[in-house]
Amino acid sequence: MGILNLFRGKAPAKIVGERPVPRHIAVIMDGNGRWAKKRGMPRSAGHAVGAETFRTIATYCKDIGVQYFTVYAFSTENWKRPKEEVDALMDLFRKYLKEAAETMFQRGVAVRVLGDLTPLPADIHAQIEEVDAIADKLGPDAATASLCINYGGRDEIKNAVRALAREVKNGTIAPEDITEDSISAHLYTSHMPDPDLIIRPSGEIRTSNFLLWQSAYSEYYFTDVLWPDFSTADMDEAIDAFNRRSRRFGGV
Ligand code: IPE
Ligand code: IPE
Ligand code: MG
């Protein structure tokens, strides 16, 4: 697991524009429903505008040199929502995965979908396979935009524990071989460094089950801006706040 060790400690910040940028930024895209409600619109309209914001901010992150951009789009708990809202979100995933398949190769962005994909509709499965194949062709050094769909941090850890338990049971590894790195290697994010910066808009100050293991030393940034209103200037502000932090990772 030597590769993962490379990502430990202070990653050198990359400077492309006027400010150094974190290597991995993650966003809990929240506030779409309230944005729509304020305007007397259905929640699905908020999701549609939020998806446009995703496109704008993902593009911006790529342009300023952020290597990994990860967004929380649908949690394992979001199935509790009304069927028409869930259906509207699935339609947005269809639309954006189609767009990704058409444009990602020429834009040089590897799109990945992270989460337990088994309950998703079959046509979305096929779309994910298509973008996966393109991302594989782009290779591990490409800028990566990850969409977390039916993602839950606890569910992800449970699945990793099950996989490791199976390996112990069939004798491939001993219990002592289970390490922090081997757990990381069984998560959906195994190919990425942990997030440096996690942004949650909409005024909520909680993780809502996002990247529980990976966020051990992430810097959090909270803002009252609702996700559909989140602009590139808001991203600059979050990055500036991140750059003012002193990350000690338990040291001095
Ligand atoms: C988007 O925001 C998050 C998703 C689950 C897609 P919300 O739909 O949670 O918006 P609020 O929190 O109700 O405003
Ligand atoms: C978290 O937002 C999930 C996503 C943004 C996809 P929620 O709106 O589902 O979280 P809670 O219910 O406010 O904690
Ligand atoms: Mg919400």
Can you summarize this structure?
Helix content is 43%, strand content 16%. It has helices at 2-5, 32-38, 43-63, 83-107, 122-138, 153-169, 180-184, 232-244; strands spanning 14-15, 20-21, 24-28, 68-75, 109-114, 143-151, 197-200, 219-222. The strands form 2 sheets. Strands 5-6-4-3-7-8 form a 6-stranded parallel β-sheet, with helices on both faces.
What does this entry look like structurally?
This protein is of the alpha/beta class and 252 residues long. The chain has one domain: Undecaprenyl pyrophosphate synthetase (3-Layer(aba) Sandwich). Helices cover 43% and strands 16% of the residues. The protein contains 8 helices and 8 strands, in the order αβββααβαβαβααββα. The chain has a 6-stranded parallel β-sheet with strand order 5-6-4-3-7-8, with helices on both faces. Helix 5 links the parallel strand 5 and strand 6. Helix 2 packs across helix 3, helix 3 packs parallel to helix 4 and helix 4 packs parallel to helix 5. The N terminus is likely disordered. One 3-methylbut-3-enyl trihydrogen diphosphate binds next to strand 4.
